[in-house]
Specification:
17 helices; globular; alpha/beta; Rossmann fold
Length: 382
């Protein structure tokens, strides 16, 4: 993967290239950044730069056969760990190595993809994946071998915050006593979900979202959009190139999430003193409860952001508002006055608590019904 093909992140690229050129490569680094900012892409490009002895700040002028192996992510000294779930083919104790063919195809097609995209690619959206202790055992086996070409070995751990406790403890021991010439690149969107003892042993690098103008230029040059359409999509993407692509192809979750959200809030507004509307809320909760937990979590995060956008509009911060609802007869400016300083904290707490309990396998129907009833009260708060 070429550094030049990665959107934005110029200071980080320069820092990583300099560390490789000078031979001062930390054995463990933690790449922290929001979805769609390119952390995985940069980790792969950095690994290629190191393993293939490339020069001049780009993945060329080094070992050409090595660079060719990276085109298919098939270099024997490059290892990946990522969240997995049981499937029809792998019914128990799934490990990253069991899905390596699918992983290579997924990353090649969409290096900016998120966790839900990965589960969708596997066809298992209704499950929550994790990195298990069996993966940590595979790390031990892989890194116990000598490197194929006599240089470094690189282990990329994508979504490191999804490690369970047993896997995290195994990895911690490796970070404390790393094998010779081994580099760990951990990637996360949620730094706080990684145990502090692992974080303290990694050099942390924080990524920002992709600049709006960079996304706009990419949509114009690579996807042949006109400037106005590209600018609009880039603004809605908010630094998330993966979201920009989903908006472009209209295959993301945001459109469906918006429809669910509008149905939800309309029923919640009517529900005060209306038994029939309460039944609508219960039916809505049953519908959302049938989804996979990852999708439920993603939807609740979307709802939190929707309420935030309404609040910003209510307090005249139009320059920060990027939501453009597409559901018929639903206007953000009409909804915004109901979201204000007297209820936003309670709304945020209610949704955050629901997110917490769903992530820990609480009964989704009960959780969502409770949230719906609370929202009915909060919407009518003066």
């Amino acid at each position: 993967m070429q550094f030049s093909s990665i959107l934005g992140q110029q200071p980080i690229k320069a820092h990583l290239i300099k560390s490789a050129d000078t031979g001062r490569i930390p054995h463990a680094q933690l790449f922290i950044g929001p979805e769609g900012c390119g952390t995985l892409s940069i980790a792969i490009a950095y690994a290629q730069y190191i393993l293939c002895s490339n020069t001049n700040g780009e993945n060329t002028n080094g070992n050409e056969s090595c660079n060719l192996k990276f085109q298919n992510l098939a270099h024997p000294d490059l290892h990946f760990i990522y969240p997995t779930v049981s499937t029809e083919e792998v019914k128990s104790k799934p490990k990253s190595i069991d899905f390596i063919t699918e992983w290579r195809e997924f990353v090649t097609k969409n290096p900016y993809g998120n966790l839900l995209d990965w589960y969708s690619f596997l066809g298992v959206q209704n499950k929550q994946g994790e990195i298990r202790v069996d993966d940590a055992q595979e790390i031990l086996k892989s890194l116990a071998l000598k490197s194929y070409e006599g240089g470094h070995k690189v282990m990329i751990v994508w979504m490191a915050d999804k490690m369970n406790t047993a896997a995290a403890n195994k990895l911690l021991k490796l970070l404390e006593e790393p094998p010779e010439k081994t580099i760990f690149l951990l990637i996360t969107e949620n730094e706080e979900a990684i145990i502090s003892t692992i974080r303290s042993r990694c050099q942390a690098i924080h990524f920002n979202g992709v600049p709006e103008e960079v996304i706009m230029d990419t949509l114009i040059n690579q996807h042949k959009l006109d400037q106005k359409s590209a600018q609009n999509l880039a603004h809605q993407a908010q630094g998330n190139y993966n979201k920009a692509l989903h908006l472009l192809h209209q295959d993301g979750d945001d459109l469906v999430f918006e429809e669910w959200f509008v149905v939800w809030v309309r029923a919640a507004f009517k529900a005060k003193g209306n038994a029939a509307a309460i039944q609508d809320l219960i039916q809505w909760s049953e519908q959302i409860a049938q989804l996979g937990r990852e999708k439920q979590k993603k939807f609740l995060e979307y709802c939190i952001e929707f309420f935030r956008q309404a609040l910003l509009l209510n307090y005249q911060a139009q320059q920060l508002v990027y939501f453009e609802p597409k559901v018929e007869k639903f206007k953000l400016e009409n909804f915004a006055p109901f979201i204000h300083s007297n209820n936003i904290n309670d709304i945020f707490t209610t949704l955050s608590d629901a997110l917490y309990h769903i992530e820990r396998n609480g009964n989704a129907k009960i959780i969502l019904t409770d949230v719906s009833i609370q929202l009915t009260r909060l919407f009518h708060k003066k």
